[in-house]
Amino acid sequence: MKVVLTNDDGIYATGLRLIYKALRDRGHVVRVVAPMTEQSAVGHSITILNPLRAKLLTEPDFSGFGVFGTPTDCVKLGLAELLEGFIPDTVVSGINAGANVGPDILYSGTVAAATEAACLGFSALAVSYDNFRPGDINDHARFAVDVLERIPWETIPQRRVMNLNMPDRPVSEFKGLALCPQTTAVWRDWHYRREDPRGRPYWWLDGSIPEEHVLPGSDRGLLNDGWATLTPLKFEFTDGDTLEKLRALGALRP
Fold first, then answer.
1. Which of 2, 122, 148, 152 is buried most deeply by CB count within 10 Å?
2. At what angle do helices 138-150 and 14-25 cross, to 10 degrees?
3. What are the DSSP calls for the chain, one per residue?
4. Which among 182, 159, 160 has a CA at the least distance from the CA of 229?
5. What is the pLDDT averaged over residues 185-198?
6. What pLDDT score does 253 carry?
7. Around 12, how many Cα atoms within 13 Å sit in the side-chain half-sphere?
């Protein structure tokens, strides 16, 4: 399988390096185009007011392009220019440090990179691990590659992203892989107020998804229980029910 690998944590991130190795160990041909610096929570943003620059990193056991831009920039520039005709069978984004479930899907640069690939007509897998400080996740990388190889891609409709999340526990302790919907629960945010040396205020955002709002059987609920989760995503935002209701009411007719 020919794979383009990207992420939002940056080209030096542990998760990207380990899944790169796992993919190559399984015989896949891998090309990397990833941000030079961390781009977490940038969503599907693209760079339009500044030029994009790229740097080829060549190391004894790794090679890839680092882009001074967003994850979506990486997919666009990589497939259009940097990879010089390399046509992947799939695009993999990750392994992200931290889960991407429920509302995270809208914020995530990891999911956005996979979404851009899907919009361009490629099979796409987003991969995340439920810990912001991943350590030795070699087994998790191998698990993700196994899932990648088992997905019946020929049956997946166009413009879909497969969103894989792995729990914060050894792979040997996973309860299994669950196909499931995303949670409908949203983040409860708070801000830490601080002052700089000149007495001017600034804030750090923090938050969590309240467990009491998480439905059993959703990605967040299953992940909390020790399951790896796989959720097919599509990005058709039209609310068909509300559309038809408004048409039936005729309230917006001139």
1. 148
2. 60
3. -EEEEE-SS-TT-HHHHHHHHHHHHTT-EEEEEEESS--TT-TT----SS---EEEEEETTEEEEEESS-HHHHHHHIIIIITTT---SEEEEEEEES---TTHHHH-HHHHHHHHHHHTT-EEEEEEES-SS----HHHHHHHHHHHHHS-GGGSPSSEEEEEEE-SS-GGG---EEE-PPP----EEEEEEEE-TTS-EEEEEEEE--GGGPPTTSHHHHHHTT-EEEEEEE-----HHHHHHHHHHTTT--
4. 182
5. 94
6. 76
7. 4
Provide φ and ψ at 90, rounded to 5°.
-155, 160
Q: How far apart are CA 9 and CA 35, in angstroms?
A: 7
Contact between residue 139 and residue 170 where contact means Cβ atoms under 8 Å apart: yes
The 10s digit of each residue's pLDDT in 65-108 is 999 999 999 999 999 999 998 999 999 999 999 999 999 999 99
Do you know the residue count of the chain? 254
- Distance from C-alpha of 189 to C-alpha of 191, rounded to nearest angstrom: 7
Cα–Cα separations (whole angstroms), residue 88 to 1, 8, 30, 73, 169: 8, 19, 9, 17, 31
| Average pLDDT value for residue range 121-145 | 96
Mean pLDDT in the chain? Answer: 96
Domains in the chain and their CATH numbers?
2-183+211-249 (3.40.1210.10)
- The pLDDT confidence band at residue 116, using thresholds 50, 70 and 90, is very high
pLDDT digits (tens, 9 = 90+) for 16-41: 999 999 999 999 999 999 999 999 99
